[in-house]
Amino acid sequence: MQLGLIGLGKMGGNMAERLRLGGHQVIGFDFSKEAVDKLTASGNVGVTSLEELTRKFTGRKAIWIMVPSGQPVDDTIAELIPHLAPGDILIDGGNSNYKDSQRRHKEVTAQGFQFVDVGTSGGVWGLKEGYSLMFGGDKEPVEYLTPIFETLAPSKDTGWGHMGPAGSGHFVKMVHNGIEYGMMQAFAEGFAIFEAKKEFNLDLAQIAEVWRYGSVVRSWLLDLTADALKHNPKLEGLEPYVADSGEGRWTVFEAIDLNVSAPIITESLIRRIRSREENNFTDRALSIMRNAFGGHAVKKD
Q1: Neighbours of 131 (CB within 10 A)
Q2: N or C end: fewer C-beta atoms under 10 angstroms in the chain?
Q3: How does pLDDT run across 212-231, given as a tens digit for each residue?
């Protein structure tokens, strides 16, 4: 089966390779000539424009878009539309807001094409481990794409599923990332407590390794943490700066809209935002208040 793939970064490139190994042909485009050349060298087909990508198909077009959320997705779709035929499928596999996916589905189908939103999890490990795929959209294009899903997923029977109508795939992926924020925060805080308990001289890498087997908290996230601590137990050379892709924020907004209490996810998001503040004004304000009402000491630069 042929699949067009737009966006050949680390994740997109690994997806293309997994599909090639699974017997599918990927026609790929990226603004990076190096990424396009690498795709061609691997045995797939690299192209230099979106129009050329659409011309390479011998049958129904299925085009998977892996670009940053927001306007880049809309711009890509707008450029592709003139080169599509009725029934062709556009797939958004990036971290788009589910409301944008609902809108795009409505716009694309009104023009005679199909749209599927795919929440994709697996990161740089997807080539080896497979990708978790949560997709939303109409039944017919989803069934047509099943061979692609089966190849990208960990197995034909695991790690992928049709969540429901348009937008549901990205909605499930959004909440997935919110949960991920909370899990990461809990692990980080736990190991920070261990690191602070100087009395026991704890080996953090050893603790993570012990927990990987039989423990209630064993997980792939813990596996990655254990490996990281083994290679850099003191986390030397790292800045305490944590970015977010936006999906944690959207999860918090959605929880508020639905009147669902989600304090763990919310606090983990706030901690990420706080990690980016240099010369933190909040903490300095707290310090001066304590000094004002209680005469507590203030540390100065």
Answers
A1: 25
A2: C
A3: 999 999 999 999 999 999 99
CB atoms under 10 Å from CB of 40, counted, come to 13
Q: Are 153 and 132 in contact (CB under 8 A)?
A: yes
C-alpha radius of gyration, the chain, whole number: 23
Which one of 107, 150, 180, 267 is the catalytic residue?
180
Residue among 280, 263, 269 nearest 244 (CA): 269
Tokens of residue 107, six digits: 């716009």
166: phi then psi, degrees, rounded to nearest 5: -50, 135
Q: What is the pLDDT of residues 42-80, one digit of tens each?
A: 999 999 999 999 999 999 999 999 999 999 999 999 999
Exactly one of 38, 61, 173, 247 is catalytic; name it: 173
**Annotated catalytic residue 33:** no
β-bridge partners, 133: 120, 160
Three-state DSSP at 64 gives: strand
- Exposure of 99 in the CB half-sphere (CA atoms within 13 A): 5
Q: What is the mean pLDDT of the chain?
A: 94
Say how far apart CA 152 and CA 64 lie, in whole Å. 12
What gap in Å lies between CA 277 and CA 157, rounded to an integer?
44
Whether residue 245 has pLDDT greater than 90: no
Q: What phi and psi, each to the nearest 5 degrees, are found at residue 114?
A: -120, 155
180 tagged catalytic: yes
Q: Give residue-wise pLDDT tens across range 10-24.
A: 999 999 999 999 999
Q: What is the DSSP string of 82-99?
A: GG--TT-EEEE-S---HH
**Pairwise CA distance, residues 263 & 181, whole Å:** 12
**CA 155 to the chain's CA centroid:** 20
Is pLDDT of 298 > 80?
no
